[in-house]
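Re: [ENG-882] Designed sequences occasionally contain unexpected residues at chain ends

Forwarding the minimal case from QA. Structure tokens:
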């Protein structure tokens, strides 16, 4: 039994080919979109219209829906009932955490934007479920501020990318307090030793204050379950991209050369 899951936030993806006999599910924001019409079933995000070309709330909406789908599929025989309730309660608390993040860290993120507004390049590093968040952060920065940015697996830093590190290459690390935290700290040390400027998004209390010693900026997010952490770690990245774009005088809602729907090759 095989399921294809399609995620899209705009009205018209270029095309959609579906082989017969495969159950297809669509996760979309726009009612009546191509994916909504051509898939067997699915979920509408109902996140409201995206005014800007570069999607933000549709991204987090899709992550939430996929998390809920995971919990639904695992509730009978994979996830114990006690854990299931913990996950659901965690999801319920996410909007409050996001609101607090935007209120408490907005000034710090604006200061970061002033510091890095003239950067020519930017590197985003993440591990596990936060590697896609690094990709999202890099995508948003280059889409709306026109700064060249790359998302990269933190474990691959020494395989080529480290050759680019110098005082002109800001690096943003997503370092959750988990079994890979020490590895992320090691990456931060490697970057600083090569005169790189480091920003860290973390859920660590860091009682020894090592992060403050190593990094230019530290943004702390609440600690949540691993697979839900992208819902919080992505918020400072999207906000940073927004503030840098505004300071640089870029049109945030209508970035150059981008269209809301891709209809041609």
């Amino acid at each position: 039994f095989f399921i294809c899951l399609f995620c899209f936030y705009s009205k018209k993806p270029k095309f959609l080919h579906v082989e017969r006999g495969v159950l297809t599910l669509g996760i979309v924001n726009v009612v009546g979109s191509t994916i909504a019409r051509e898939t067997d079933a699915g979920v509408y995000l109902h996140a409201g219209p995206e005014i800007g070309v570069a999607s933000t709330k549709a991204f987090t909406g899709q992550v939430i829906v996929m998390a809920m789908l995971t919990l639904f599929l695992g509730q009978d025989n994979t996830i114990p009932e006690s854990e299931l309730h913990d996950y659901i309660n965690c999801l319920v608390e996410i909007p409050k955490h996001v609101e607090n993040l935007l209120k408490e860290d907005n000034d710090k993120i604006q200061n970061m934007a002033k510091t890095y507004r003239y950067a020519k390049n930017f590197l985003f590093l993440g591990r596990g479920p936060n590697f896609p968040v690094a990709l999202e952060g890099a995508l948003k920065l280059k889409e709306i501020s026109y700064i060249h940015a790359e998302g990269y697996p933190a474990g691959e830093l020494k395989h080529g990318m480290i050759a680019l590190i110098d005082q002109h290459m800001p690096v943003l690390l997503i370092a959750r307090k988990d079994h890979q935290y020490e590895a992320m700290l090691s990456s931060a040390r490697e970057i600083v030793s090569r005169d790189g400027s480091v920003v860290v998004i973390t859920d660590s209390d860091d009682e020894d204050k090592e992060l403050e010693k190593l990094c230019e900026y530290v943004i702390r997010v609440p600690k949540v379950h691993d697979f839900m952490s992208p819902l919080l770690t992505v918020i400072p990245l999207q906000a940073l991209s927004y503030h840098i774009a505004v300071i640089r005088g870029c049109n945030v809602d209508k970035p150059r050369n981008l269209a809301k729907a891709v209809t041609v090759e």
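QA comment: On inspection the terminal residues look reasonable. Helices lie at 34-38, 57-74, 81-104, 106-116, 131-145, 181-193, 210-214, 230-247. Proposing we downgrade this to a documentation issue.
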